[in-house]
Amino acid sequence: MKLYVVRHCSTVCSEEKIYCGRSDIPLSPRGEAEARALTEKAESYSFGALFSSPLLRAKETARAVVGERDLPIFFDDRLKERDFGVFEGRSVEAPEGKRYRYSLALRYPGGESNLQVAARVYAFLDEIKKKYTENLFVVSHGSACRIIRSYFKQMTDEEFYAYSQPNGMIEEYEW
Q: Which helix (H) or strand (E) covers residue 1, if one does?
Protein backbone atom coordinates (compact mmCIF):
# COMPACT_ATOMS: atom_id res chain seq x y z
CA MET A 1 0.00 0.00 0.00
CA LYS A 2 1.22 3.48 -0.86
CA LEU A 3 0.57 6.82 0.74
CA TYR A 4 0.78 9.88 -1.51
CA VAL A 5 1.26 13.14 0.35
CA VAL A 6 0.99 16.61 -1.12
CA ARG A 7 1.58 19.90 0.61
CA HIS A 8 -1.14 22.40 -0.32
CA CYS A 9 -0.39 24.59 -3.30
CA SER A 10 1.02 28.10 -2.80
CA THR A 11 -0.62 30.92 -0.85
CA VAL A 12 0.38 34.53 -0.38
CA CYS A 13 1.75 33.53 3.06
CA SER A 14 3.95 30.73 1.69
CA GLU A 15 5.21 33.02 -1.08
CA GLU A 16 6.02 35.79 1.39
CA LYS A 17 7.38 33.38 4.05
CA ILE A 18 4.83 34.32 6.68
CA TYR A 19 3.61 32.01 9.46
CA CYS A 20 0.17 30.86 8.39
CA GLY A 21 -0.82 28.07 10.73
CA ARG A 22 -4.52 28.22 11.45
CA SER A 23 -5.36 31.16 9.18
CA ASP A 24 -7.95 29.96 6.69
CA ILE A 25 -6.73 31.50 3.45
CA PRO A 26 -7.18 30.53 -0.22
CA LEU A 27 -4.57 29.65 -2.79
CA SER A 28 -2.75 32.51 -4.47
CA PRO A 29 -2.85 32.93 -8.27
CA ARG A 30 0.41 30.96 -8.41
CA GLY A 31 -1.20 28.30 -6.18
CA GLU A 32 -4.21 28.09 -8.49
CA ALA A 33 -1.85 27.43 -11.42
CA GLU A 34 -0.04 24.78 -9.35
CA ALA A 35 -3.44 23.20 -8.56
CA ARG A 36 -4.32 22.97 -12.27
CA ALA A 37 -0.99 21.25 -12.94
CA LEU A 38 -1.56 18.98 -9.93
CA THR A 39 -4.95 17.88 -11.31
CA GLU A 40 -3.23 16.69 -14.47
CA LYS A 41 -0.39 14.99 -12.59
CA ALA A 42 -2.70 13.26 -10.08
CA GLU A 43 -4.65 11.60 -12.91
CA SER A 44 -1.86 9.04 -13.17
CA TYR A 45 -2.14 8.06 -9.48
CA SER A 46 -4.39 5.26 -8.31
CA PHE A 47 -5.89 5.69 -4.83
CA GLY A 48 -9.04 4.70 -3.01
CA ALA A 49 -9.46 7.57 -0.55
CA LEU A 50 -8.28 11.12 -0.05
CA PHE A 51 -7.82 12.82 3.33
CA SER A 52 -7.25 16.52 3.78
CA SER A 53 -6.82 19.23 6.34
CA PRO A 54 -10.06 21.22 6.57
CA LEU A 55 -8.27 24.54 6.01
CA LEU A 56 -9.26 26.26 2.76
CA ARG A 57 -5.86 26.09 1.05
CA ALA A 58 -5.73 22.33 1.63
CA LYS A 59 -9.38 21.87 0.57
CA GLU A 60 -8.72 23.65 -2.72
CA THR A 61 -5.64 21.48 -3.31
CA ALA A 62 -7.57 18.31 -2.41
CA ARG A 63 -10.27 19.19 -4.96
CA ALA A 64 -7.53 19.57 -7.55
CA VAL A 65 -6.13 16.12 -6.72
CA VAL A 66 -9.55 14.48 -6.98
CA GLY A 67 -10.25 16.23 -10.27
CA GLU A 68 -13.11 14.49 -12.11
CA ARG A 69 -13.02 11.33 -9.98
CA ASP A 70 -16.16 10.36 -8.10
CA LEU A 71 -14.30 10.19 -4.81
CA PRO A 72 -15.16 11.82 -1.48
CA ILE A 73 -12.68 13.93 0.42
CA PHE A 74 -12.41 13.15 4.14
CA PHE A 75 -11.44 16.19 6.21
CA ASP A 76 -9.47 15.58 9.40
CA ASP A 77 -8.38 18.22 11.94
CA ARG A 78 -5.27 16.19 12.74
CA LEU A 79 -3.89 17.22 9.34
CA LYS A 80 -4.04 20.96 10.10
CA GLU A 81 -0.91 23.09 10.07
CA ARG A 82 1.00 23.62 13.29
CA ASP A 83 -0.53 26.32 15.47
CA PHE A 84 2.04 29.12 15.50
CA GLY A 85 0.27 31.05 18.27
CA VAL A 86 1.42 34.65 18.63
CA PHE A 87 3.71 34.25 15.60
CA GLU A 88 0.76 33.79 13.22
CA GLY A 89 1.08 36.37 10.43
CA ARG A 90 4.72 37.21 11.20
CA SER A 91 7.78 36.49 9.08
CA VAL A 92 9.28 33.01 9.46
CA GLU A 93 12.65 34.75 9.29
CA ALA A 94 12.01 36.58 12.58
CA PRO A 95 14.89 35.51 14.87
CA GLU A 96 12.69 35.23 17.96
CA GLY A 97 10.51 32.59 16.25
CA LYS A 98 13.37 30.30 15.28
CA ARG A 99 13.85 28.93 18.80
CA TYR A 100 10.31 27.50 18.62
CA ARG A 101 10.55 26.45 14.99
CA TYR A 102 13.68 24.37 15.55
CA SER A 103 12.69 22.78 18.84
CA LEU A 104 10.93 19.48 19.34
CA ALA A 105 9.20 20.21 22.63
CA LEU A 106 9.05 23.99 22.84
CA ARG A 107 5.56 25.33 22.05
CA TYR A 108 5.01 28.59 20.23
CA PRO A 109 3.42 30.95 22.78
CA GLY A 110 -0.29 30.23 22.42
CA GLY A 111 0.48 27.49 19.90
CA GLU A 112 1.90 24.00 19.45
CA SER A 113 5.22 22.18 19.64
CA ASN A 114 6.51 19.77 17.01
CA LEU A 115 5.82 16.97 19.50
CA GLN A 116 2.15 17.92 19.69
CA VAL A 117 1.89 17.98 15.90
CA ALA A 118 3.65 14.61 15.72
CA ALA A 119 1.24 13.07 18.24
CA ARG A 120 -1.83 14.01 16.22
CA VAL A 121 -0.34 13.23 12.79
CA TYR A 122 1.09 9.87 13.91
CA ALA A 123 -2.30 8.94 15.44
CA PHE A 124 -3.95 9.77 12.11
CA LEU A 125 -1.42 7.66 10.16
CA ASP A 126 -1.74 4.71 12.55
CA GLU A 127 -5.52 4.86 12.19
CA ILE A 128 -5.67 4.93 8.39
CA LYS A 129 -3.01 2.23 8.12
CA LYS A 130 -5.30 -0.12 10.10
CA LYS A 131 -8.50 0.81 8.24
CA TYR A 132 -7.42 0.81 4.58
CA THR A 133 -5.70 -1.60 2.23
CA GLU A 134 -5.65 0.51 -0.94
CA ASN A 135 -3.40 3.42 -1.85
CA LEU A 136 -4.32 6.67 -0.10
CA PHE A 137 -3.77 10.36 -0.73
CA VAL A 138 -3.23 13.03 1.95
CA VAL A 139 -3.26 16.81 1.49
CA SER A 140 -1.73 18.75 4.36
CA HIS A 141 0.69 21.52 5.35
CA GLY A 142 4.43 22.05 5.72
CA SER A 143 4.77 21.01 9.38
CA ALA A 144 2.50 18.00 9.01
CA CYS A 145 4.28 16.90 5.81
CA ARG A 146 7.61 17.02 7.67
CA ILE A 147 6.10 14.89 10.45
CA ILE A 148 4.67 12.42 7.92
CA ARG A 149 8.13 12.08 6.36
CA SER A 150 9.58 11.30 9.81
CA TYR A 151 6.95 8.56 10.24
CA PHE A 152 8.30 6.72 7.19
CA LYS A 153 11.99 7.67 7.12
CA GLN A 154 14.69 7.81 9.76
CA MET A 155 15.88 11.39 10.02
CA THR A 156 18.48 13.12 12.10
CA ASP A 157 17.40 16.34 13.82
CA GLU A 158 19.25 18.29 11.13
CA GLU A 159 17.50 16.38 8.32
CA PHE A 160 14.13 16.83 10.02
CA TYR A 161 14.44 20.60 10.34
CA ALA A 162 16.04 21.01 6.91
CA TYR A 163 13.23 19.16 5.13
CA SER A 164 10.54 21.29 3.52
CA GLN A 165 8.16 19.71 1.04
CA PRO A 166 7.52 22.21 -1.76
CA ASN A 167 3.98 23.45 -2.28
CA GLY A 168 2.01 21.25 -4.66
CA MET A 169 4.65 18.49 -4.72
CA ILE A 170 3.65 14.86 -4.23
CA GLU A 171 5.75 12.59 -2.00
CA GLU A 172 5.27 8.83 -2.13
CA TYR A 173 5.67 6.48 0.84
CA GLU A 174 5.31 2.72 1.09
CA TRP A 175 3.70 0.92 4.02
A: none
